[in-house]
Design brief:
Elements: E1 7-12, H1 14-22, H2 42-48, E2 50-56, H3 65-85, E3 90-92, H4 96-104, E4 108-115, H5 124-132, E5 135-139, H6 163-175, E6 178-180, H7 186-195, E7 201-202, H8 219-228, E8 231-234, H9 238-241, H10 243-258, H11 266-279, H12 287-301, E9 306-308, H13 328-337, H14 342-368
Parallel strand pairs: 1-2, 2-4, 3-4, 4-5, 5-6, 7-8, 8-9
Helix pairs in contact: 5-6, 7-8, 10-11, 12-13
């Protein structure tokens, strides 16, 4: 079935894994071969039926502004070099038509998404430069506030978006860059939806009604998202899809904080996880719970407003049945078992995000007219 229409995943952190595990050396991270230490490589992308992948050019939100910009450029460079190294398997995609063209050629459409407004260093000129380099969405924050937008996992600062934050949203939509509301506070979600004239996305978030995590989307925002014509791309992270896993992560963060660590610095938190797990074994999430979140978003916002944003290589653990990028067919089989038609599955897989991309392009063209 996935050979008939593209499956487009909203978020994959392989570029950061290549940086940290292989020193940005694509020879050491030869993704044309199976790499068990990663969740992602080309053989498993093919097995998973991936037609398009948003590669995250993530950098930590704790970096100083100038360093954040520099490292973001280095991450963009990794993705461009990765695409150039495997031209028979990957193709750079800047538009919806690029995605469908790559899919028709049997290549994985490769899109770039920046994760956190710290990547622009407070500069609209840098934002425009990222767009010129191929970045087609930006998450407004990562885990930390950015001075002009509040994050979901930080202490409230500006109360949502500041005046400059609203300028950022307007400029992104003027460029045709998707505004990504994963990671942001609910106040920021609502402020962005108030400003947005084109559809926005959540690139990797799930439903807060099912799992009470600050990284998930409340029902009232999902309903507003439908009015905006946007899409929520459901993540596979155990703490986003299982309440038991979310509660375990809260306890882990408390343990980290009591040990003098920053609970919002996930590198520090997960560094403690192996030791903490010896006395507090982590619970598991299941593929069926991801399916529950997909169905909930579809019920609240509508089937036209749900997608897939796995967050592979951005989380240490994954639900049973969704261990790596080869496992998407198992999820789609589950949705079909639950009665989803092929048209529904086509919308979930990529139809919805392609519609949003086209709408963003149209809005940008009209704003330049």
């Amino acid at each position: 079935m996935l050979s008939r229409f593209p499956l487009i995943d909203g978020h994959n952190d392989l570029p950061w894994e290549i940086r940290t595990e292989a020193g940005s050396d694509l020879g050491k991270a030869a993704i044309d071969k199976r790499l068990p230490r990663f969740h992602t490589d080309i053989p498993r992308l093919v097995e998973g039926g991936i037609g398009g992948q948003w590669w995250s050019v993530y950098v930590p939100g704790t970096l100083a502004p100038d360093e954040a910009v520099r490292v973001t450029l280095e991450q963009i460079d990794i993705v461009h070099r990765m695409i150039a190294r495997y031209p028979d398997r990957l193709r750079l995609a800047l538009t919806a038509s690029d995605v469908t063209g790559a899919f028709a050629e049997g290549r994985v459409a490769s899109l770039l998404g920046a994760e956190g407004g710290h990547s622009i260093g407070g500069s609209l000129a840098v934002l425009r430069s990222l767009h010129a380099l191929g970045v087609r969405y930006m998450t407004l924050t990562h885990n930390q506030n950015v001075g002009w937008a509040d994050a979901a996992t930080d202490v409230p600062d500006v109360g949502g978006l500041s005046g400059f934050g609203r300028e950022v949203v307007r400029e992104m939509q003027h460029l045709g860059m998707l505004v990504d509301l994963s990671h942001v506070a609910v106040t920021t979600m609502n402020d962005a939806l108030e400003v947005a004239e084109a559809p926005v996305i959540f690139s990797h978030s799930s439903a807060r009604a099912l799992t009470d995590s600050p990284r998930n989307v409340p029902d009232d925002v999902l309903r507003r998202l439908a009015g905006n014509q946007g899409v929520c791309m459901v993540a596979f992270v155990p703490a986003f899809v299982s309440q038991e896993c979310a509660d375990w992560l809260v306890d882990l963060k408390k343990a980290a904080e009591s040990g003098g660590l920053d609970p919002n610095n996930l590198a520090e938190v997960f560094g403690l996880a192996s030791e903490y797990s010896k006395e507090h074994p982590p619970p598991s999430a299941a593929l069926s719970q991801v399916a529950d979140h997909i169905e909930h978003v579809a019920e609240v916002a509508g089937i036209e407003h749900v997608g897939i944003g796995g967050d592979f290589d951005g989380t240490p653990d994954l639900p049973v049945g969704l261990e790596d990028v080869s496992r998407y067919p198992a999820l789609f089989s589950e949705m079909a078992r639950r009665g989803w038609t092929e048209e529904n599955l086509k919308a979930l897989a990529g139809g919805n995000i392609l519609r949003v991309m086209r709408a963003a392009q149209t809005h940008a063209a009209q704003s330049h007219a």
